[in-house]
Every structure is written in C-alpha cells, then in structure tokens.
Specification:
Elements (H helix, E strand, L loop, with lengths): L2 H5 L4 E6 L5 E3 L5 H15 L9 H21 L3 E9 L2 E8 L24 H8 L1 E7 L5 E8 L8
Helix pairs in contact: 2-3, 3-4
Length: 158
C-alpha cells in the first residue's frame, strides 16, 4: 500500500449508509474510532446474524487496535493512517505514525538502548496476540506497523 493511500484511509460503517448506498465515512483519529471501524469491518466479514465472529477473537482484535493506535498517539508523534481490511480468515491492520523509532523489543528480547525507558504492556500484548507483525520505516519518515489478526467463526475450536 502506498503511503498516501494509508494516510487517507477512512473507515466505513457497515450498517450506516448515505444516499445511493454509499458508505458513511469519518476519519480515524482516536483509538475509539479505530475500534469502531475494525468492528464494522469484522461485522461486514462475519455477519453477526448468520456467521458471527468468535467473541474471543473480536476482543483480541479490538485490544490490538487500541494498543497500536494509542502507541501511535502517545509515542509515535501522532496517528498518520489507519486501515483494517477483512480477509477470509482474519483482519489485516496497518497503523502509521510519524516516528522512525521502532518499539522496544520489536527486534527480539534484547534490552532497550541505554538511557531509554521501557514501555508498558501494550507492545508485548500486540506481539502475543497478533500474527505476521511487520514494521516498515517510511521513506518520508515515520513507520507503518502491519499485523494480521485471525478471526474464527463462533463455534470454531480455539
């Protein structure tokens, strides 16, 4: 995905429609808005009435969304883009911020550089719950963190 596409990513509400069936759009600027968008994407892929998503997977998805977006806002110089895309077996998230700094522990269990304070529980939680975690530094500055969150249909075994 190109930087300008991610930076301009806008969520759609699966159930809220404007005239002529066009999705209602609003920018993702907060963790709450990102969670709402991720939930709408999941509900579009896993219809709550006929094919509901496994509740545990939804909780994990929303927790990872919260952590990634909150980290971008608190430690990454602000949120520069957010995207959630549904696939057959889960949701791919991309969160872009303005900082070139990679989260501590992202490259293994090595201690952080001297003089640098360690973070809280958010990043280790993301690493535990998400799959295919990838951090890409952007040529114009900042970084994009991409993760895959598996989502099963309710009733599928854990």
């Amino acid at each position: 995905m190109r930087e300008d596409e991610l930076a301009s990513a806008r969520p759609t509400r699966a159930r809220a429609r404007a005239r002529h069936g066009a999705p209602v759009q609003a920018p993702v600027t907060t963790a709450a808005a990102a969670r709402a968008h991720a939930r709408a994407v999941a509900e579009a892929g896993w219809d709550p009435a006929t094919r509901p998503a496994h509740e545990t997977d939804m909780i994990d998805l929303l927790l990872v969304v919260s952590e990634l977006v909150t980290n971008a806002l608190r430690h990454g110089g602000g949120l520069a883009g957010f995207e959630a895309v549904s696939g057959p077996d889960g949701i791919r998230l991309a969160v872009r911020d303005h900082s070139d700094e990679v989260p501590s522990g992202a490259c293994g269990p090595a201690p952080p550089p001297s003089g640098r304070a360690t973070g809280g529980y958010g990043w280790p939680l993301v690493l535990r719950l998400a799959r295919e975690v990838d951090i890409e530094k952007e040529p114009a500055g900042g970084k994009t963190i991409r993760v895959f969150m598996p989502v099963r249909t309710a009733g599928e075994p854990l």
